[in-house]
Amino acid sequence: MRLKDKVAIITGASGGIGEVTAKKFALEGAKVVIVDLKKEDVDRTVLDLQRIGCEAIGFDADVTKREQVDQFINDTVAYFGRIDAVINNAGITQDAQLIKMTEEQWDRVIDVNLKGVFNVAQSAAKVMIEQKNGVILNASSVVGLYGNFGQTNYAASKFGINGMTKTWARELGKYGIRVNAIAPGFIATSMTQKMPEKVLEMMKNKSPLKRMGSPEDIANGYAYLASDEASFITGAVISIDGGAVI
Questions:
Q1: Domain extents for the chain?
Q2: Is the pTM above the cut of 0.70?
Q3: Closest to 73 in 3D by CA, of 9, 3, 134, 139
Q4: DSSP 89-106
Q5: Is 154 noted as a catalytic residue in this protein?
Q6: Which runs of E-coded beta strand occur in 24-130?
Q7: Exposure winner among 23, 97, 135, 215, fewest CB in 10 A?
Q8: Which of 79, 154, 222, 224 is the catalytic position?
Q9: 158 labelled as ligand-binding?
Q10: What is the pLDDT of residue 197?
Q11: What is the CATH topology of the domain spanning 7-186+218-239?
Q12: Using CA atoms in the order 224, 225, 229, 231, what is the torsion angle rounded to 10 degrees?
């Protein structure tokens, strides 16, 4: 169990990649903190983890609200005594071409995907600095490496994630804190299941492996980067995309 007794906070953890990551961390022996917007979803996910023997707690919180972030960070430390890893998974999309994108669409995506990650990382980093140890993992995207049609706001947020990841790795390394990001490619989730078959085939064909990734593929990457096996990896943005961009 590569994460035995490590305390991990996962945002956006009651569905999709976040929920699968939470279960992966639980199976690897971690104590897991679930953070998401809706209390009923948080409670359901915590119960699922507890059923498989994980020591898990949860908080319904909005990562864009700093006082709520500070509260669940402080409550986690009060309950578990430490924070070993934070996975900044919470994120949204509100797509539109440049000339059609509204100010509200821009502001909301930047607020959640960029400010939310900043809020959680800054609050958690203060705890990790005192511990002289910790791991911060950020959810980037291949869109944050190459851009994508109709995703000005999302691409900007993910390019920003990459920059923050590298900057924090430089700043926090002296405290024993590692900071990395994962850039997923086309991943099969409940959202993609609603897409037209033609679009799904296009996504599959972009990969030399001729398939979409699974949430488990991303969760495995987070579990590795959070473990001591990755103790000399920091400042990296690792693509898990099935070779879609080569």
A1: 7-186+218-239
A2: yes
A3: 9
A4: -------B-GGG--HHHH
A5: yes
A6: 31-36, 56-60, 85-88
A7: 97
A8: 154
A9: yes
A10: 87
A11: Rossmann fold (3.40.50)
A12: 180
